[in-house]
Specification:
The protein is an alpha+beta fold. Among the domains are: 175 residues, Alpha Horseshoe (Serine Threonine Protein Phosphatase 5, Tetratricopeptide repeat), CATH 1.25.40; 58 residues, no CATH class; 195 residues, Histidine kinase-like ATPase, C-terminal domain (Heat Shock Protein 90), CATH 3.30.565.10. 56% of the residues lie in helices and 15% in strands. A five-stranded antiparallel β-sheet has the order 2-1-7-6-5. Strands 12-14-15-17-16 form a five-stranded mixed β-sheet. A hairpin with a 3-residue loop joins strand 16 and strand 17. The two termini are 29 Å apart.
Amino acid sequence: MATPPRSALTRLLSRLLAPGRGEVRAMEDAMHLEGVLRFIAVFAGTVVLPALLLGWIGVHSVRSEELDGQAEARRAAQAAARTFTDGVDRELSSFEEAVETRLEAGRSTMDAPKELHPDLVLTLRFDRDLRLEAPFVMGDQDSVHSSGPLAMDVWRRADAFARSGGDPDEAAARFKRAAARLASPREVARADFDRGRSLLAAGHRQAGLAVLQAVADQHGAQRDPWGFRYSDLVALTLASELMGRDPAAGARALGRLVDTLLADRWVVGEGGEGAVARRALSLAEPYLDPVWLSGARGRVARRSAMLFWAEELLPELDTAGAWAETAAVKPGVARWRTGSRALWATARWQDDLYAYAFDLDTLTNRLRADAMGSVSADAPITALLVAPDDPEPANIVERRSLAPYLAGWSVAVILRDPGALRAEQRRRRTLRFGIVGISVGMIALGFMTSVRLIGRELDVARMKADFAASVSHELRSPITQIRLKGESLLLGLADTDQERDSAYHVIVRESERLSRLVDNVLDFAAIERGAKRYALRPGDLAESVRRALISMESSLEFKDMTLEAVLPDDLPVVHHDADAVAQCVINLISNAAKYSSQGDTIRVIARTAQGLLNGRQQDIIEISVMDNGIGIAAHDLRQIFEPFYRSRDTQARRRKGTGIGLTITRYIMEAHGGDIQVTSKPGSGSAFSLRFPLNPPSPSERGTPNLSPPGIPRPFHGA
């Protein structure tokens, strides 16, 4: 049969391996190695390279995800800022449209200002000369406060007497004396007004009315020290007096007074009109229509609030600048300015200038809340309203100005918690890198494990080949010797008795070698199949060792060697299989003889001791076989009990052997709940110790070991 052609790779590998192995062995190893290389190539192409590519993609995707996250945060920030600014624009532009609609319809923008905007607190109208026209006017000479009465002792004493409930006639007399002593007409007006009220209280109605009417006629437009117009005070007093006589008529008079006050333009800086109106409504409440009363109270409250804001905000309104800004634009188009307390919107309509003031604090506080609420609570960003004087926020993602409405104000979208965001990014990065690293690591581990297993398989294959060659050689040698000596005896070639005895001895010696070899092979095959069992019975371990030694004494293997035994008679009884123990001792002694020189001594010693066995300290019996042979190298000590293992040491490989004797011995000892230990030094011999527990081993301690080398399946089953 023709030999199958070898590949170029096999031939190349064979040439590389030939110098150290020989051509035949090199070719066998090259064929195995070619399969390994092909497996590695396929594994690398189908698993490793895709895994590395996936790992690279995974690492690259981590960075891409971070960049996408940043871009997504920026897009979300831009959307939030745009949504907020669009909302502000819609809100204030809607106010502009509402104002323009009212002006076009001829309606006053000073009525119901909250309908125009919830934060609108003041509406004003100025004429072309920039004088305040509505709903208030600035104070002039006719509205200047009277001065003096509060500082005059005579008036103060009279007022105190009247307030304390003194006699009204006496109070009127005191006010009259005070008026006579006052020089200023305005001071006299206050004293006369108080005298008129005292006369009414004393029941002198005609006299009191005459005095009050004179005050109204002469000083009606003037104001008392508290800002009340005398005309309003006289009207309130007369209506109150009328209610005492005719409540319905008095209530109607008070209602007319309120309508008159609301129709008049109040004076900025004076609050008397509002106080008089509220007092009138309070007095007339039981007698007036509730609907009208509620509306009147609302109008008084709004007018009073606007008067307060006018006093507070007018100083910061530049009417000249507002007129200049609005003069060049379409009528009704508003121009916006931000003051210290108000946001001003000014617009020109016909020849008038309209100014609208928003409460800046209320407006901006609401916008701050709207800004924070414009972003969901679980988003990594948040929006802030930034004032002109506020410090620059940190970690700004997007910023937009609120001009032209709120000049200098802006909305800033910032990272809500940069530290937490970075920590989350690090966590995700670590997790992704960890997953990629673990995946690549597992693939690398699988690759290395596969290579290791293949290497182990090659070693096992080589060991099997060595075992087959060794067994063949071991069998051929004794068979050849037996055949030669048998033929010599059969053909009568042994002429003398000495020659015949020598032939008989050779036949016996080689038969013993052959028998031990066959027994070991059969036992190993049974162990591999899991069919080998041992009967552990209590017995004298020393006696079992002696029988093994006696059987060895007749062996010619120990010719020119000394066998010494120290076996105490008082060794404790041990559960063991006598034949199996004898086989262990024979294997160890045979090895000792094989690796020793002529004239050496082999010692067998039994003793009791304390030792660590099966994971616990206990009493044991040791059977030690010691020799002075070539010893065992340190790198071989870990593998000598593996099946088929033969040392690579040149001296050791020159000795014949199958590589299964120590494996069988290890198996037998483990089946006895014990173990075998070895100490050796190259050139100084070796010592093998069989260690037996004194107590019977439990089933868990009598395990069935795997005879395969560590990390690979059982190499084969059967002999």
